[in-house]
Amino acid sequence: MRVSISSGSRFEAEIGYARAVCLNGWIFVSGCTGFDYATMSIASDVVTQCAQTLRNIETALAGAGAGFADIVRVHYLLPDPADFEPCWPLLREAFGRHPPAATMISAGLADPRMKIEIEVTAYRAVEG
Predict the structure, then answer these.
(1) CB under 8 Å to 117, separation ≥6 — which residues?
(2) How far are the Cα atoms of 38, 107, 116, 117 from residue 112, in angstroms, in the given order?
(3) Which residues make beta-bridge pairs with 2?
C-alpha cells in the first residue's frame, strides 16, 4: 500500500510532490531544506539550515512511524562544498549511531537562499 506524507509546505502543492512516500516498508523522503515550514522562513547560515533540515526529515519520518535509525541511504546536496564540513557535527549526531550509505553532491539548488538539501531513504519492516 502506498501512503503519501505532506509537511504542509506550499512547495508540495505548487510543484506536485509529497514530502515522503511509504511503500512496502520503504520510506522515500524528498529532499528537505532549511525552510521552517511553519513560518516559511530560512536562516542565512548553513549550520542553522542543516539543523532545520534534520528537523524536517525527522518530522517526515515520524509521519511514517520511523526515525533516523531506519535511514539506509542519504544524499547531501550543497551548492558550496566548503559548507559541508561545518555541518558534520550535526550529521554525526543524527546519523552516527546507525550510519547510512551516503553521497555528497555539489549542485545548485532551487532557491539561492538554500545552502543544503538532504534526501533520505529509510526502511521499516512491514508486519504481517
Answers:
(1) 31, 32, 33, 53, 76, 77, 78, 109
(2) 20, 11, 10, 12
(3) 23
> Which cell is 88 given?
558534520
pLDDT digits (tens, 9 = 90+) for 6-42: 888 778 889 899 999 999 999 999 999 999 988 889 9
CB-hemisphere CA count at 13 Å for 7?
28
d(CA 119, CA 21): 12
Q: Is residue 89 part of a domain?
A: yes
Is position 128 within any domain? no
Confirm whether 38 is domain-assigned.
Answer: yes
DSSP classification of residue 116 = -
Please choose, from the candidates 126, 119, 118, the residue with its C-alpha nearest in 3D space to the C-alpha of residue 22: 126
Length of the chain: 128
- Regarding pTM above 0.85, the answer is yes
Total domains, the chain: 1
CATH code of the domain containing 54: 3.30.1330.40
